[in-house]
Amino acid sequence: MSLSDVQTRLAQAARDAGRDPASVTLVAVSKVQPDDRVQAVLDAGQQVFGENRVQEAETRWAHRRAADPTIELHLVGPLQTNKVNKALELFDVIQSVDRPKLAAKLADAVQARGAAPRLFVQVNTGEEPQKAGILPADADAFLAECRGPMSLQIEGLMCIPPVDETPALHFALLAKIAERNGLTGLSMGMSADFETAVAFGATHVRVGSAVFGARTPG
Ligand SMILES: *Cc1c(COP(=O)(O)O)cnc(C)c1O
After folding, report:
1. For 4-49, what is each residue's pLDDT tens digit?
2. Pocket flag, ligand 1, residue 75 (CB < 6 Å)
């Protein structure tokens, strides 16, 4: 378990960038990890976790969150519109608002529940056809739509850069889109590049394998 190692590197990256280490939240992405590893990280004091599937998150976290309301859970993977209500029960933060239909569904659900989750809009900075997210050219209009007619409060932006490209360019692009839209939250950086992301202003880094160990496939 290398939680403390990641915490140390994260704090150092923040100081190197002239930033307060407290301005960056470590989201420990526990998807697919064996439960004993997750419990060890929880026992070590980590309180913010990310999952990419609603069903898996429910199995792993529903009972833990019932026992400990200070656990904060982020959805970092795609959300089907028929699972919006379940997701709102389970997650404090939805980082994957990636299309108008989902935003509309979230807006309806927020109205009905009278309580709003924290939301990040996912931007497909690499314009990859297989990847979810709003295209950079459409981001301003989409954000205006969310914040205007849909009355959704948006905290920030999230991106997953293409695996074969320099992440820094994507982090810089995301930061630029956020800045011109007056958004302060930036969820970017994973195990391989969270220090770079912090240099570009990340407020949330989503780190899985560097915290928990490699995910065993299958
Ligand atoms: C799995 C995942 C992560 C964590 O990836 P690591 O490389 O293991 O740190 C971060 N963000 C998203 C959206 C993920 O699906």
Report:
1. 999 999 999 999 999 999 999 999 999 999 999 999 999 999 999 9
2. no
Token pair, residue 54, equals 């609603």
Our answer on whether the CB atom of 76 is closer than 6 Å to any ligand 1 atom is yes
Nearest CA to ligand 1 atom 12: 76
pLDDT of residue 115: 85
State how far the Cα of 102 lies from the Cα of 213, in Å rounded to an integer: 32
CA distance 29 to 49: 6
The protein residue with its alpha carbon nearest to ligand 1, atom 7, reads 191
Q: How far is the CA of 148 from the centre of ligand 1 (A)?
A: 31
CB 44 within 8 A of CB 3: yes
Name the residue of 206, 211, 215 to mutate for ligand 1: max ligand atoms within 8 A of Cβ: 206
In ligand 1, the atom with minimum distance to the C-alpha of 191 is 9
> How far apart, in whole angstroms, are the C-alpha atoms of residue 79 and residue 98?
9
Q: pTM of the prediction?
A: 0.97
Extract the runs of DSSP E, i.e. beta strands, from 1-92. 25-29, 48-51, 72-75
Distance of CA 83 to the CA centre of its chain: 18
| Rg from Cα positions in the chain | 17
Q: Are 170 and 125 in contact (CB under 8 A)?
A: yes
Q: What is residue 124's predicted lDDT score, i.e. its pLDDT?
A: 98
